[in-house]
Design a protein that fits this description.
The protein has 200 residues and is an alpha+beta fold. It has two domains: 2-98, no CATH class; 107-191, no CATH class. The chain is built from seven helices and eight strands; from the N terminus they run E-E-E-E-H-E-H-E-H-H-H-H-H-E-E. The strands form three sheets. A three-stranded antiparallel sheet has the order 2-1-6, with helices on one face. It has a three-stranded antiparallel sheet with strand order 4-3-5. It has a two-stranded antiparallel sheet with strand order 7-8. Helix 3 packs antiparallel against helix 4. It is elongated and about 90 Å long.
Length: 200
Amino acid sequence: MKAIAYTHPNGGTSICRPAPWARLVAAFTLNGRHVLNPPVPFDLLVAQFNTESLAPEWAETENQFLTRIRLKDVPADATAVRIIDAADIPVDRTFRDALKIDLTHDMPRAREIQRDRMRAARAPKLAALDIAYQRADEAGDNAKKERITALKNALRDVTADPAIEAATTTEVLKAVWPAVLTDPLNINGAALTGLTVKGK
């Protein structure tokens, strides 16, 4: 199955997946009977006859079908258009906004997406640590304040992890996920005893 990839003026990439049942049918065979008809979308015939056992004879080739869909659905201001195999489209959509028309990824953009993911993951943890710090301050627990400060600094530093810039593929990049984002209660082996930090 083919799809249509195109680039927007802003550099973003969209993918149009033509529905196979939208392809025009000129004739079909049903229960051994050959029927001619004006070209209509295949799904209309399936709906009309309430069966999927139709054997269609297409009114347009696959290329003609793709051309018709392209003219109908691809914006006129697309700066590049490419026919691709739908099977080649990445299943993992984590870095979908960094996808290029050749189905590779814009790695600088992918790195920013990963940093944004990290920021979203750390935000509720930092908020909870702010509350914990205030309570420790009120209690005069300087040792706990120092441990909380260490955790907050570690969380702030995740987006500067050199492994982000070192990653050359999205698979490697996605795996860059510092442990402090998963469990901020245990960093460098120093747990905050009695302190629960959870996202809101």
